[in-house]
Write a structure and sequence with these properties.
With 166 residues, the protein is mainly β. The chain has one domain: Tumour Suppressor Smad4, CATH 2.60.200.20. 5% of the residues lie in helices and 36% in strands. The chain contains 1 helix and 11 strands; from the N terminus they run αβββββββββββ. The longest helix is centred in the first third of the chain and has 8 residues. The protein starts with 7 loop residues before the first helix and ends in a 27-residue tail after the last strand.
């Protein structure tokens, strides 16, 4: 399969983050982390939150993540969740299914054809020139919670306060 690039409209659609996340909050895996696959295909842009052990990706109606294109294999790829030594996890994408059956055209990760790849934040997966996905590993934006910090004080200069005339 020749190296393919997503169109500019696909790129901009894939580059917008899922709701509740921002690029400034990208961190290594931790409990408040979210894993997302943002797919762009003939049906448009779709967001898939990841959390399960295994996801089948392809054209078949029974795939966990269904891709809409006649040029994508029925079982084009598989996502497998793996655990790191520190207890956090990541996803590995494998061309085809877990039984060793590869897809017809393979997968490209960031423009390079590979049989399998440990996904990293913002990796671009190309299934065919019109079907792409971007992987995000993001930390949820959360506000500060817990008891009030007694040392978190705002000092006000008395000269800044207007005295009211009674």
């Amino acid at each position: 399969m020749p190296e393919a690039k997503a169109s500019q409209s696909q790129q901009s659609s894939l580059n917008s983050l899922p709701s509740g996340f921002s690029k400034e909050t990208i961190v290594p895996s931790e409990p408040q982390e979210g894993h997302w696959l943002i797919v762009q295909d003939d049906k448009g842009r779709r967001e898939f939150p990841l959390g399960g052990e295994v996801y089948s990706i392809g054209r078949a109606p029974n795939c966990d993540i269904r891709l809409y294109s006649l040029f994508v294999s029925r079982r084009h790829a598989t996502l497998v969740r793996r655990q790191r030594e520190d207890g956090s996890y990541y996803y590995r994408i494998v061309d085809g299914d877990l039984k060793g059956q590869s897809s017809s055209n393979g997968i490209l990760i960031n423009g390079h054809k590979v049989p399998a790849h440990n996904l990293e934040n913002e990796d671009m997966v190309t299934f065919d020139p019109r079907v792409t996905a971007k992987y995000y590993r993001l930390k949820r934006e959360t506000g500060k919670s817990g008891p009030i910090d007694p040392f978190d004080v705002t000092l006000i200069d008395p000269a800044m306060i207007e005295e009211s005339e009674d």
